[in-house]
Amino acid sequence: MNICKSFRHSCLIGLIKYSNGAFNYILIPQGIKYGSFILNKTSIFIKFLNLTVGTTTFLIYFSVLSIVFNLVFNLKKGGQYARAAGTFCQILEINKEKNLILIEFPTKIKKWVVGSKIATLGRASNIFHNQEIFGKAGYFRNLNVRPTTRGVAMNPVDHPHGGRTKTSSPEVTPWGRVAKRNK
Q1: How far apart are CA 19 and CA 7, in angstroms?
Q2: pLDDT mean values, one per 10 residues, the chain (183 residues)
Q3: pTM of the predicted protein model
Q4: Best exposed site among 6, 65, 81, 146 by fewest CB in 10 Å?
């Protein structure tokens, strides 16, 4: 497993090789080292195996008070929750009769989730990401990231949100319709 930092993710990513020879990138859990073996099972036989950090399986197979990250609610979308550096969700309660799991999200919201959803055991890596110091102004320019100007700071001819001088009028499209409406 090769571990590297991505500009797109705050969590570390790693290149893994499956037992069939295929390669894939995953989000690395905290505590995984180069050359470690991780388990990625979604079969019914996983409940007889030891669950270690990095194991990806259904929520119903984890125990109470387990820490998980990279929750997959929709298989077509991939992981959607607790993917940032150092984040995790905690399993608070398991109801095996109804196949429901009570999960506390990083935002401290508690929610019942179906046990057939997939997650990875552990905490997302790079837990000291929030203490990172860039060192100087212009750090991101060296990474080829150009500055962006807010639309509110522009004139009305340059941007649909431009021209307002701190009024309470809503931001509108070029055709006058409200652009940012609460859904």
Answers
A1: 28
A2: 71 88 90 84 63 88 93 89 93 94 95 92 92 88 88 83 72 77 61
A3: 0.73
A4: 146
